[in-house]
Design a protein that fits this description.
CATH superfamily: Bit1
CATH architecture: 3-Layer(aba) Sandwich
CATH class: Alpha Beta
Number of helices: 5
Distance between the termini: 35 Å
Number of domains: 1
Number of strands: 6
Helix content: 25-40%
Order of helices and strands: EHEEEHEHHEH
CATH topology: Bit1
Strand order of the largest sheet: 4-1-6-5
Largest sheet: 4 strands, mixed
Length: 140
């Protein structure tokens, strides 16, 4: 299967929060899809370097309504691994606080700040193929 990895961040996040969201999403996706992380590599001097993600990881942007819609649509795709980073996660100081807040928050009220997706290239292209890259102003 030809696979793809993509991240989509809210277009209104300040840079610091966007970088934080991307980091959290990347670590979680790497844990959920261990095949993304190949064996360590060694340079010519014999120094080992941690294996880096083995597929491209474009970072795209979307408005929050689009993120919510993407989350809902991705949930229906069996072969797509979805990781969401919500406002509840952003405001929690600890993982226990996140879990406690999430348990009392209905899904429909979550505001997504970012999503990480992994799955068949064709499915992900259909889902996010029209979104611009982070840092680029859409033409039009």
């Amino acid at each position: 299967m030809d696979v793809k990895c993509v991240m989509v961040l809210a277009d209104d996040l300040p840079v610091g929060l966007a970088v934080n969201a991307a980091g959290v999403l990347a670590v979680t996706l790497g844990h959920k899809v261990p095949s993304l992380l190949p064996a360590d590599a060694v340079d010519a001097s014999g120094t080992a370097h941690a294996g880096l993600i083995n597929v491209p990881l474009p970072i795209l942007v979307a408005d929050r309504n689009t993120l919510k819609s993407l989350h809902e649509r991705a949930l229906t795709l069996e072969q797509v691994m979805l990781v969401g980073f919500s406002d509840v996660a952003q405001h929690a100081r600890t993982y226990d606080a996140y879990v406690a807040a999430l348990i009392s928050t209905p899904t429909e009220t979550l505001a997504y700040l970012g999503l990480a997706l992994y799955g068949p290239k064709k499915a992900l292209n259909k889902l996010v193929g029209n979104l611009p890259l982070y840092g680029r102003v859409p033409s039009g």
